[in-house]
Amino acid sequence: MQQGNGLQDKRVVVVGGSSGIGLAVAQQAASQGAKVVIVSSNAERIQKAVASISGGAQGHALDVADERDVATFFAKLGAFDHLVFTAGDSLHLHDLAATDLQQARRAFELRYWAALAAVKYGSPHIHKGGSVVLTTGIAGQRPQKGWAIAASVCGTIEALTRALAVELAPIRVNAVSPGVVRTNLWRNMNASERERLFESVGNSLPVGRVGEASDIAQAYLFLMQEGFATGQTIVVDGGTVLV
Ligand SMILES: NC(=O)c1ccc[n+]([C@@H]2O[C@H](COP(=O)([O-])OP(=O)(O)OC[C@H]3O[C@@H](n4cnc5c(N)ncnc54)[C@H](OP(=O)(O)O)[C@@H]3O)[C@@H](O)[C@H]2O)c1
To answer: Which of 53, 164, 208, 237 has the least C-beta neighbours within 10 A?
Structure first.
């Protein structure tokens, strides 16, 4: 690991940091001395998230699907060290025959186009030695029936990660690919349905459980600090690809 790459006093911007994986990244980075800025669309959730981060954090309400607002936000924010993008909305999973193609296009808005906008407008402000960490998902490698669109988004992010690592060098660009993780992403299912899903997926995995946001966050912290890793996607999936 390149010396001096720890997170102490580094400024880390977490887009999607008010909940789930992003919030866990923000909490763990702050606990290692980073100055964290969390961004999400809902001011109330940001407030709660900021209050849960020991050592404090800044919060900004921003719909990252709005390119102009993203450009304005980064122009005002100034220099920083690491950009983490974990923003995501609920998944719409359908067999292809039942897929509304207009809605399917919208699946790319936040996870792909907004991530690209965040990198486009954020990366010019990243200090030397800094990095970008994007988010994909194991569905890209191990899709289930009904996951054609979600898996396509994941594959696109992995390709984007490699392309940006070449184009933005020496800024490093990596991604994390989680398996099923217990977060608000699954809030469009009712509570008992969700618990049944977590239990059945967990029981099918070599590790015997689904992931927690804190499990996945550690991969982001590794990638921010590992000065010799770029263009890579780290899989943290409890062994999903093996079963
Ligand atoms: N959980 C899983 O099982 C799993 C598995 C594989 C991959 N992933 C991926 O991991 C990423 C993080 O998911 P998660 O599980 O941590 O979900 P989560 O808990 O629902 O967090 C999503 C975050 O995105 C923010 N967000 C949503 N729309 C936004 C917008 N328009 N502008 C700005 N921020 C917005 C949310 O905050 P606001 O609501 O305040 O805007 C929230 O902070 C997603 O890309 C997801 O696809 C998750």
So the answer is: 208
